[in-house]
Amino acid sequence: MKQFFTVVAFILLTIAFFSGYSNFGIPQIEPAPPPKEEKLDLGSMTMDQFIALGDRIFQGKGTCTLCHNSLGRAPMLGTIAEVFQERLKDERYKGGAEDLEAYLVESLVEPSAFVVAGFGKKGTNDAESPMPNVAAGSIGLSEAEVSAVVAYLQDQAGAEVTVEIPTDVGETEEEDEEEAREALDDPKAIMAQFTCDACHMINGEGGEVGPDLSKIGAAYDRDYLRRALLQPNADIAKGFEADMMPEDLGEQMFVSELEVLLDFLVELK
Predict the structure, then answer these.
(1) d(CA 237, CA 241)
(2) Using CA atoms, how far apart are residues 205 and 208, in angstroms rounded to an integer?
(3) Are 218 and 210 in contact (CB under 8 A)?
(4) What pLDDT digit, counting tens, does each position of 38-64 carry?
(5) Which domains are delineated in the chain?
(6) Which end of the chain is more exposed for a tag (fewer CB within 10 A), N or C?
């Protein structure tokens, strides 16, 4: 019996030692506070500030540069003021715009109204765009944010900025989505959050900029898929080019989201 109590006492002392060491002996890492949301008072904003807002949205929350870049995934927009009239007259045009501002808004929220030749979804004869409606889904730009992006695009194209700054929405907030949101636990929601389907196809749905993921789990193991997500240029799939996938997914995703997504991908067989 004495030996039993001695063992129990030893175990308790060991647990107490490691508990104390973990709490007081190891430096504690305190997470940085989330960045403060920028309050945007549209009522007092100048047009230059509004255009700058559109630039930030285009480069950030709108995820526009994932496709509209020098790699040729989507049409470049610098000449949009010169070519939009031809597109409005094209027999394939299905929209109702009459000027550049309306055409840009339409392109953002109804991207299939006109698809530039060669940039449509495969098998649709350029009738359907792989681009999502930026005012819905995981991007979810507000009406004011869409207007800011349009003002930015007009300015970048060297056209007259005809957009009027909204005055009836009061203050709005420019949020850092990655910092403010909660971790997702559904793989499809995660893929929507990071707009994976804009480039990758699964079971006939999605884009074709990146490899088809429908049977990716049968071809590659979990370690390869993890590397493909965190270091996309480490192994380039045959027929595709480097720098086509964002390299900062590891910084944008929660660790739990990465594991959920990997669980989903390895089962795609």
Answers:
(1) 8
(2) 9
(3) no
(4) 556 777 889 999 999 999 999 888 878
(5) 38-175 (1.10.760.10), 187-266 (1.10.760.10)
(6) N
Q: In one letter, which amino acid is 169?
A: V
Tokens of 186: 């559904």
